Amino acid sequence: MKNATxxxxxxxxxxxxxxDIVTKALQAGASDAEAVFSEGDxxxxxxxxxxxxxxxxxxxxxxxxxxxxxxxxxxxxTSDLTAEGIERLICGAMxxxxxxxxDPFAGLPEPGEFGKLAGDLDLYYDDVYSLPAAERIEYxxxxxxxxxxxxxxxxxxxxxxxxxxxxxxxxxxSRGFVGEVRRSSCSISAQPIAMSPDGGMxxxxxxxxxxxxxxxxxxxxxxxxxxxxxxxxLGARKVPTQRVPLVFAPEVASxxxxxxxxxINGNAVYRSxxxxxxxxxxxxxxxxxxxxxxGTMVGGFGSLYFDGEGxxxxxxxxxxxxxxxxxxxxxxxxxxxxxxxxGNALRGLAGSPGISCGNFxxxxxxxxxxxxxxxxxxxxxxxxLIGHGVNIVTGDYSHGASGLWIENGELAYPVEEITVAGNxxxxxxxxxxxxxxxxFRSSVACPTIVIEGMTIAGE
Amino acid sequence: MQxxxxxxxxxxxxxxxxxxxLLEQCxxxxxxxxxxxxxxxxxxxxxxxxxxxESLVKSASQGISAGCGLRVVSGERTGYAYTDDLSPERLLxxxxxxxxxxxxxxKQPVQGFRESASAGLYTVASPxxxxxxxxxxxxxxxxxxxxxxxxxxxxxxxxxxxxxxxxILVAGSDGSFATDTQxxxxxxxxxxxxxxxxxARGSSGGGGRVLLDFFLTDKxxxxxxxxxxxxxxxxxGAVPAxxxxxxxxxxxxxxxxxxxxxxxxxxxxxxxxxxxxxxAGLIGxxxxxxxxxxxxxxxxxxxxxxxxxxxxxxxxxETVLIENGVLKGYMSDKLSARLMGIADTGNGxxxxxxxxxxPRMTNTYMLxxxxxxxxxIRSVQRGLYAVNFGGGQVDITNGKFxxxxxxxxxxxxxxxxxxxxxxTLIGNGPExxxxxxxxGNDLKLDEGVGTCGKAGQSVPVGVGxxxxxxxxxxxxxxxx
Lengths: 459, 480
Known about the structure:
The complex is a heterodimer.
Chain A: H1 2-10, H2 15-27, E1 32-48, E2 51-69, E3 72-78, H3 83-96, H4 133-149, E4 154-173, E5 178-195, E6 201-203, E7 206-210, H5 219-231, E8 242-243, E9 246-248, H6 250-263, H7 266-270, E10 291-294, E11 315-320, E12 323-324, H8 331-337, E13 345-346, E14 354-355, E15 359-362, H9 369-374, E16 378-386, E17 396-407, E18 410-423, H10 424-427, E19 431-434, E20 444-445, E21 449-451, E22 455-457
Parallel strand pairs in A: 9-16, 15-20
Antiparallel strand pairs in A: 1-2, 1-4, 2-3, 4-5, 5-6, 5-7, 8-22, 9-21, 10-11, 10-15, 11-12, 13-14, 16-17, 17-18, 18-22, 19-21
Helix pairs in contact in A: 4-5
Chain B: H1 6-15, H2 20-30, E1 37-53, E2 56-74, E3 77-83, H3 88-99, E4 114-115, H4 133-150, E5 154-172, E6 176-195, E7 198-208, H5 214-217, H6 221-236, E8 243-250, H7 257-264, H8 269-273, E9 294-297, E10 318-323, E11 326-327, H9 334-340, E12 348-349, E13 358-359, E14 363-366, H10 373-378, E15 382-394, E16 400-412, E17 415-420, E18 423-428, H11 429-432, E19 436-439, E20 444-445, E21 450-454, E22 457-465, E23 468-476
Parallel strand pairs in B: 4-6, 8-15, 14-22
Antiparallel strand pairs in B: 1-2, 1-5, 2-3, 5-6, 6-7, 8-23, 9-10, 9-14, 10-11, 12-13, 15-16, 16-17, 16-18, 18-23, 19-23, 20-22, 21-22
Helix pairs in contact in B: 2-3, 4-6
């Protein structure tokens, strides 16, 4: 086994390696098969208080197999890519498929559905690895140093970081699809800690994340923003229980889109375990809301040439002026619902395909954040949410929160140890203002929004 | 001394080609540029899962993952590399990569390994567990039937069984050597109840470092299925949760997630060494009511959070965190123990060979008090009684923590009344436990479902608590 491992490790895994797994699975008795290979390299650099604290550099790879026998399916994964390991991968799957049930909705997509986007989506840049170790450390050090230098009340830190990663994935199936994708990413961050005269501590965080080193914000600007976000929390207090307009900053507003992604996920929809199940064509939100899922954006964090089942990704309007126009579906959930896949299959190494969004965003409005705040006489600007307080079955929403109180259109003082609660069914109808500040910092992006009618619980 | 698990060592030596000389070579390579300490963490995990969904066996999967993480520690610095290729060439290359953290003359690791003994906290099934697949399947099919039989309003049932066997070998440059084989199993049931337009969910599950027998005798599929169905049906009639500060009574068992968030994370040594925790510098001070004693205990047989040795090869132990309200100590790994001059409490854990170990909880719970749980409820005029929770989260720096109640009731005039909808509870770690005025005599540990996340790493943990009363806490509902 040892010798074989060495041979494999020195060779780059080819698409033939993956199609070969599919062929062997068919030879072993599968009626259909789908194999996936993924490899990734990463390095992480963490500097704290100016000193290197952690350096990590490594890579790993693994293969996964999904087999069908008629309408039955099973899957296996392995990190052992020797001939012996692959044989075990196939035998294991063929043994497991005997125990699963006939499911008329199971199976690979139909042959005519496969495809890949043409052109270059700009998902891979080898410059993320271009820096020598000393310069990576310098990026992390500069980011933290900028935060530490910004304010005398910042004397401690969770550190500054510079991380980079690349990944390669190959998908092949017995219906003739073979696809390969490479992606890269890199990021810098700072997590300063500020202390007020009474000893109270606050931390916050800021980062820049991109597919290319050349696109990153400067370490200095990231550090400064991290510092600004941290010191503005000092002296935070509780406020009384009340109902006021809530202004969600983009970083927390995107978590509301995250709840919608969960609620239109085909798996939740066909089980009726979502407050948006069965609502296609209905006005589920105010007419000022249009939400798009686009897997085809050049350079996007949620972009791919093909989805986890080999279907081309696409752009779709999910919510058109408040009316629900599309769910997020893979082949299985589409068949369950009598619909077509929306190209949102997510293939990990293990199990049946899940569902993920592409680049998912709320279309921006006209107002700047300042104009939005200026219209609020008494309310809360929410900057942080903590907890897991969304129930997508009922739409009930209750989160720990902190932020800044708004008085007469101005940010007045920091607030903490409160909750914000409502129900998403109503919240989506009660968004009274949408900002123009749509920025993609990850695959889900939302501008500043104002939601009326939610409850703050405090003292 | 009994070796920890000779079979585990044999597995790594015979099946993966390791030997003592190779381990020593790797450690020497890791210390080739100096450093205080180096270790190797080998891991070989087999995992399987089965799901019954809509009464069909929709998915079955199995996986194998193996690799080695190599670490070099120099002062406060850690260099880390990992590889899933266990050939001598790749291991040595990774050792040299990790060594880049240090810059000095090479050091020699201690010659010869001292293998630590095993506490024998769990039994391991004989290899070839594929033969158990039909029995596992039978378990989740029983769960599916039991949930549907509970009430005609149960319209969806998903039941899954997931288990893994993790073999580890840890060798340190100080001569430390440990092996362990760690089973982990979990049965989970989640259901949807529907009545007209009204829909609710319920879920239940449990397990631990147990064998299949556990689910046939101790906690049956019917037990978990009935519990999930009961919660879902109950939620159909839930009223909005109240909003604001009020007395809160927490039921026994899983509500101990309060301790995990409110004090547990804040007492992990790394945060205190760096003074980034709201608990930093509070050792010896009152951080809770005198009725509160909290421990972290990795030595409980068969518990989900238990380990014979942690992921640095150190034996686990029972560590008193808070005694009669006074902060006593932190949970530590090797690095923080050395830098802080405190004992290594055997809390160094990691998600996998791809991750750097850090201080983590095992099973964290509050010791029982003397109050009768019924008296605790009767003492509340108007408040919340919460017995089941989803997840929680904490900001360890300002101490604010939340946890989300998935089953809770109003208390009115000393009586439990209407069930309420999901609500998040929020508090401040170093303050909240000062409001504990009653502690029940009914300590219970959770069923074995907890997974804790920290710095992107997930590890299985346990929590526990008796019934307690907090005189005030903020409840995040929408009602009056």
